[in-house]
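User: My instructor asked us to take a sequence, write out its structure as tokens, and then describe one feature of it. I'm not sure where to start. Here is the sequence I was given:
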Amino acid sequence: MLYFLYEWLARSQEHVPLLNLLKYLTFRTGMSMLTAYIVAVAMGSRFIRWMKSKQGKGQPIRTDGIARHVTEKAGTPTMGGFMILAGLFVGALLWADLRNIHVWVVLLITGSYGVLGFMDDYAKVTKQTTAGLSSVQKLIAQFVVAIAATVLLILFAPKSPMTAGMETSVVFPFFKTLVINLGWFYVAFAAVTIAGFSNAVNLTDGLDGLAIVPVMIAAATFGLITYLVGNYKFADYLNLHFAPGVGELAVLCGAIIGGGMGFLWYNAPPAKIFMGDTGSLALGGALGAIAVCSKHELVLGIVGGLFVVEALSVIIQVGYFKKTGKRVFLMAPIHHHFEKLGWAESTVVIRFWIVAMMLSFVGLATLKLR
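Assistant: Let's start with the prediction itself. The structure tokens for your sequence are:
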């Protein structure tokens, strides 16, 4: 919205030189981060008190899980993802170029998955059970939204002669020219990326601060990636595939980081509020959508490798147990396996943060190792 103000004043006699800052993507990214942080922190205490009054017993805790969680985390309210999403949307709507189709596609997915997550959290809180909406219900809704958003991208994303066919292509990291055009099968590939990563982040959100910091790390990494691939000169120098208009998503990445930091202020151990599916499904979907827009879907699997491993641990555990009646891990997702081994919660969380940072460096290395 403020970008519109800059353009309007730039064409009028009331031009204010200071507002020239608004044309710089880096400035607007920084301001979206700050705005989202302020919104999330400002909501904090009042929102948490209100959630406690409405939710009573708070988020249900698995009784078959880690024993100390039942006593230590009982009564903690959930749906803290509202704080992150409020900051994200305010920051994005104030500082992003709202004529950009990529911005609206990512916001569509983020908002829709946030609503779906709220419905799941609401069902859990009202029924006081860890089972909310069924997996089938969530997956159907996620895929419908992801497919619709991908079709919008294919039809309406900016195109140029140098990017012909890229809207339905998969780009492989570490290779300069390895690109496979999937045609309309790309819609299914993109939908799996978006919905899959949304659920991967959701499965990771099981300990205080465990999910939100890796989400911010991934957002920072993709903020840089979108900035580079959206700029023709940088993309050409690094042998990246140019994606017109994608640079604007750096503003959204900044808002994710700012909203995440504001939430972490209250989610730091011991957490005063949990993110809930409201936040985890939305943030995972947002990162998946940003990866699709920037044509770095496979790089997301590297940068977000921690989330991928968490999801795979659940798939392996469930599949192996159904087939043999035995378990591969002491408990899934895998962060609970390490708790069962005797690691303190803070040890698991911080070590997983370190893994997330290392994977982000590997993901960034793909920009040059080609």
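For the description part of your assignment, you could build on this observation: The mean pLDDT is 91. Try explaining in your own words what that tells you about the chain.
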